[in-house]
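We read letters as residues; the fold follows as tokens. Both lines appear below.
***
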Amino acid sequence: QVQLVESGGGLVQAGGSLRLSCAASGRTFSRYFMGWFRQAPGKERVLIASISWGGGTTYYADSVKGRFTISRDNAKNTVYLQMNSLKPEDTAVYYCAADLNYGLAKPNYWGQGTQVTVSL
């Protein structure tokens, strides 16, 4: 089992940057496929980025491709989401997720979420 705690959200102006972190408990972090989801008001929660167990494979939703970068440090039990060139439409609650299986179709573990607000 793993517990996830996100940090790094906040208020930023359009065009700015934020880096989200997700710290995981336990000694088996490298066994978990990791990802970031986001949920805007009135919308479904969607996967925006994911990273494989060793970090060699990443996925990005079209909406964030070229602007966001996911990475992980297995020695620190942490996954990151670097967000650049932020837009107002990036405003959402961002959730870290983990699963032992590939792809995060139905993650077993979720963080509590961190709010990101992008102003004009």
About this structure: The first strand starts at residue 4 and ends at 7. DSSP finds no helices and eleven strands in the chain. The mean pLDDT is 96.
